Amino acid sequence: MAIATINPATGETLKTFEPLTDAEIAAKLDLAGLAFDDYRKTDFSKRSHWLQQAADILDKEKADFAKIMTLEMGKPYKAAISEVEKCALVCRYYAEHAAEFLADVEVKTDASRSFVRYQPLGIILAVMPWNFPFWQVFRFAAPALMAGNVGLLKHASNVPQCALAIEDIMQRAGFPKGAFQTLLIGAAKVADLMADDRIKAATLTGSEPAGASLAAAAGKQIKKVVLELGGSDPFIVLESADLETAVATATTARMLNNGQSCIAAKRFIVVEAIADKFEKLLLEKFQALKVGDPMSPDIDLGPLATPGILQDLDEQVQASLKSGAKILIGGQPDSDRPGNYYPPTILTNIPTDSPTAQEEFFGPVAMLFRVPDIDAAIKIANGTPFGLGASAWTQNEGESDRLIDEIEAGAVFINSMVKSDPRMPFGGIKRSGYGRELSIQGIHEFVNVKTVWVK
């Protein structure tokens, strides 16, 4: 894939970039290694100050950064503004809490003194996706830098200006030269990077194939890796639910980021007693969505990020129809406008044993399943290879307890939409990946947990 900014709303190529040469990559690795030697010795107060400075830059220039995101990957401008604000939030969270999270932990033993000390690993490689091009990077960078590591970012090839802007933010914030660098390279270079002894660990957010490839490369080198991969998140609605609130949230949850989010609700599992009403209300909400130029402040849905994503989504929908599914709304690419537009779509009557019922739909397509009871709902919710997040709606405490205990996912949200929050760990199970980002668990992923025993 070429490294270029291609406006997904128009198909216009706005800017292209030459990938780094092998010599340029080597020079950046050298610089990162030298930076780590000094940076690891800085104290938390300095790191915190620099990260607070980064947050200030994000807040002051959020309009400019949001515009870059929208032009490169098509998210609604108002959503891009919110993304930048969330990046500032995670910077401030770790600037304020990292020292506490990484303080020595005293343990009473038969030694004179015994404790656990958290120390940085070194250079961490971050392979990041295009769908949240600022947030995905900052939720890695904030804890990694506060822990004393240095970062190398290999961003998706369709968001190069976002990648360069983030490096520039870190430099202007005061971080030492080489502490955070962007590598404009293709995916084929990742395995070679993992083979370099100076890179100690990696993190990836992306597709299953990309995760498997990085994990294999890391495994050969016995290196730590954190993976946040795909999801086909269930959205369960039981009879006692506040139906109107559930439907409104369902619409927002499915259309999040133009439907291109790992934690977007994708499979709507509704008990039969309220299924007709839920379907009617959901259809009305989808019909009311405004599709258009993502820079416009009043639109709800913009284009998909690339023509390939549009094609893949349409092929999944057509495969669903061949397996017996029916369409309530949408179901065909929007050929009346330029760009990668796919309309809000609802699929019903999907055979639970069909291949598409097991897949992740990365776009504004909702799959609606009817079930007789909570037992069937949980069975369908768990009936995919994924286990990232789940949203479930009920006013019954017993049902809530069962859903929390029995749904196979890294996160369960009761009467709320799945989201990431700096204060809570984030990640999945099964083929949705392993390891955790955010909270205290996220900063502990890339440190040496050193046992110290003094007699």
Give the key terms:
alpha/beta; 14 helices; 20 strands; 21% strand; globular
What's the short version?
It contains 14 helices and 20 strands.
Number of strands: 20
Multimeric state: single chain
- Which word captures the global form? globular
What is the strand arrangement across the widest sheet? 12-13-14-11-10-16-17
Q: Over all CA atoms, what is the radius of gyration?
A: 23 Å
Count of runs of 4 or more consecutive helical residues:
14
Helix-and-strand structural type: alpha/beta
Distance between the termini: 58 Å
Instruction: Tell me about the largest β-sheet.
Output: 7 strands, mixed
Percent helix: 40-55%
The poorly predicted ranges are: none
Mean pLDDT: 97
Proportion of residues in extended strands: 15-25%
Detail the topology: elements first, then pairings:
Layout lengths: L2 E4 L6 E5 L4 H18 L4 H17 L1 H12 L3 H25 L3 E2 L6 E8 L2 E5 L7 H12 L3 E5 L5 H14 L6 E3 L7 H6 L3 E7 L2 H14 L2 E5 L4 E5 L5 H13 L9 E7 H17 L18 H16 L3 E4 L15 E4 L16 E7 L2 H8 L4 E2 L1 E5 L3 H10 L4 E4 L14 E2 L2 E2 L4 H6 L2 E8 L1
Parallel strand pairs: 5-6, 5-8, 6-7, 8-9, 10-11, 10-16, 11-14, 13-14, 16-17
Antiparallel strand pairs: 1-2, 3-4, 4-20, 9-19, 12-13, 15-18
Describe it.
With 455 residues, the chain is α/β, with parallel strands linked by helices. The protein contains 14 helices and 20 strands. The protein has helices at 22-39, 44-60, 62-73, 77-101, 135-146, 160-173, 190-195, 208-221, 243-255, 272-288, 307-322, 374-381, 397-406, 439-444; strands at 3-6, 13-17, 105-106, 113-120, 123-127, 150-154, 180-182, 199-205, 224-228, 233-237, 265-271, 326-329, 345-348, 365-371, 386-387, 389-393, 411-414, 429-430, 433-434, 447-454. A seven-stranded mixed β-sheet has the order 12-13-14-11-10-16-17, sandwiched between helices. It has a six-stranded mixed β-sheet with strand order 7-6-5-8-9-19, sandwiched between helices. Helix 2 packs antiparallel against helix 4 (77-101), helix 4 (77-101) runs parallel beside helix 5 (135-146) and helix 9 packs across helix 10. The chain is globular, with a radius of gyration of 23 Å. It starts with a strand and ends with a strand. The mean pLDDT is 97.
